[in-house]
């Protein structure tokens, strides 16, 4: 009976974590560049009720008798499918069609990666700097902040599908100015460490960032100006998952109640 109490308790804990993840997905349904997270579970140890594989008369049994001891959360993985693209009135709004990430410089000096391309030009010491809505500098293919001289009118800057910044020449045709927005990929995006503000940082599990501008072995992402990538959260799927998790939580609680009643009945047998 104590075993069933503990097993059902592990199920309730696991489903609570599942509901927490689903709630976070629903909370970020309108967050640009957010990626859906899913829980993965695995069973705990098994206890052998009967270790021998033969019956009383020596015949071999087709299977052993083992009782599971519950479940626990194995991982919370992100689904890195591309979200829907939404048109934006901003000329510095960028979406990525592919597996790449934008790179930004954090306040601590480290490099972080994001799919949220809601950028804007802000005043810097040397000119106009392309930055996130939090003021973090956006990096180019060489890992340097993108800063344009004051001679450029930032409203006339256009960006090609390769991330090249262009400015009208004497014939009013867009011409590259030698600056390219950095786009990077990872061999294992699920290994990235998640931070707030839709930022990720590399880890040993994710591997080193692959620069799309210099690596010929990766499929290059397409930079789309005037669009933003929305969240890839599917509200209907999340609501169904929440109902399933809630029902599983209720069933585990009923298992605890049933085990408790059986223990009470066993204790009353001596009376």
Folded structure, characterized:
With 271 residues, the chain is α+β, with helices and mostly antiparallel strands. The chain has two domains: 1-32 and 235-271; 85-229, no CATH class. Helix content is 22%, strand content 31%. It contains two helices and 20 strands. The protein has a four-stranded antiparallel sheet, with no helix packed on it. Strands 9-10-11 form a three-stranded antiparallel sheet, with no helix packed on it. A three-stranded antiparallel sheet has the order 12-13-14, with no helix packed on it. Helix 1 (2-27) packs antiparallel against helix 2 (235-268). The longest helix has 34 residues, at 235-268. The protein is elongated.
Short structural summary:
The chain has 271 residues and is α+β, with helices and mostly antiparallel strands. Helix content is 22%, strand content 31%.
Task: Count helical runs.
Answer: 2
Gyration radius, rounded: 27 Å
Count of discrete domains: 2
Mean pLDDT across the residues is 91
Helix-strand makeup class? alpha+beta
Order the strands across the largest sheet as they lie in space: 8-7-15-18
Pattern of helices and strands:
HEEEEEEEEEEEEEEEEEEEEH
pLDDT under 50 segments (min length 5)? none
Number of strands: 20
Strand share of the residues? Answer: 25-35%
């Amino acid at each position: 009976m104590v075993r069933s109490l503990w097993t059902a308790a592990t199920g309730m804990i696991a489903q609570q974590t599942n509901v927490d993840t689903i709630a976070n997905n629903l909370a970020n349904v309108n967050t640009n560049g957010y990626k859906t997270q899913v829980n993965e579970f695995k069973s705990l140890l098994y206890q052998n009720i009967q270790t021998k594989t033969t019956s009383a008369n020596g015949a071999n049994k087709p299977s052993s008798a083992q009782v599971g001891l519950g479940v626990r959360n194995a991982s919370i993985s992100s689904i890195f499918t591309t979200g829907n693209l939404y048109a934006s009135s901003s000329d510095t709004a960028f979406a990525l069609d592919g597996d790449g990430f934008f790179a930004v410089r954090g306040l601590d000096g480290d490099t972080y990666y994001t799919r949220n391309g809601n950028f804007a030009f802000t005043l810097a010491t040397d000119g106009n700097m392309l930055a996130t809505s939090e003021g973090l500098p956006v990096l180019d293919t060489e890992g340097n902040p993108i800063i344009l001289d004051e001679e450029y009118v930032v409203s006339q800057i256009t960006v090609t599908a390769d991330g090249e910044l262009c400015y009208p020449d004497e014939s009013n045709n867009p011409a590259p100015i030698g600056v390219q927005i950095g786009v990077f990929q990872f061999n294992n995006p699920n290994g990235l460490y998640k931070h707030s503000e839709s930022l990720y940082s590399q880890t040993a599990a994710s591997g080193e960032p692959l620069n799309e501008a210099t690596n010929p072995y990766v499929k290059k992402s397409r930079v789309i100006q005037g669009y933003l990538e929305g969240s890839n959260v599917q509200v209907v799927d999340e609501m169904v998952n929440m109902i399933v998790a809630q029902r599983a939580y209720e069933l585990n609680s009923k298992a605890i109640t049933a085990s408790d009643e059986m223990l009470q009945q066993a204790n009353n047998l001596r009376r």
